[in-house]
Write a structure and sequence with these properties.
The chain is mainly β. It has a single domain, classed as SH3 type barrels (Roll), CATH 2.30.30.210. The protein is about 5% helix and about 40% strand. Strands 4-3-2-1-5-6 form a 6-stranded antiparallel β-sheet, with no helix packed on it. The chain is globular, with a radius of gyration of 12 Å. It starts with 15 loop residues before the first strand and ends in a 9-residue tail after the last helix. About 10% of the residues are buried.
C-alpha cells in the first residue's frame, strides 16, 4: 500500500494502532486493534479491555495491512469515516 496524503481517507477499523503522543499522559504508549470509530474517538481493544482514545489530542502509529508503519496526527482524522472520503486533502509538504 502506498503511503500518500490520502491515507487519512482509508478505513482504520481492524488495524493495529498505538498512541505515540497525547495530551493525556495516561494514554501514551497504549496499543491495540481498532475495533470502533466515532466522529471524535477510536476504541482500541487492548489485552483484556477496550480503551477509548480521543483523536483530536493524540498522534497515532498505525500498522497497515501490508506491514507498513504510518504515523498520523489525530486532528487529520477527526470526523466520521464516511465523511472523510468527501474531505479535501491539503498537501502539507
Amino acid at each position: 500500500m502506498k503511503v500518500t496524503p490520502s491515507i487519512v481517507q482509508d478505513e482504520f477499523i481492524g488495524l493495529e494502532a498505538s498512541v505515540v503522543q497525547c495530551s493525556n499522559p495516561c494514554v501514551v504508549g497504549m496499543n491495540g486493534q481498532v475495533v470502533d470509530e466515532t466522529r471524535n474517538t477510536f476504541t482500541l481493544a487492548c489485552k483484556t479491555e477496550r480503551k477509548v482514545v480521543i483523536k483530536d489530542t493524540a498522534v497515532f502509529d498505525f500498522i497497515l495491512s501490508d506491514g507498513t508503519g504510518v504515523q498520523i496526527d489525530g486532528t487529520l482524522m477527526v470526523g466520521r469515516s464516511e465523511d472523510r472520503l468527501k474531505k479535501r486533502i491539503r498537501r502539507v509538504w
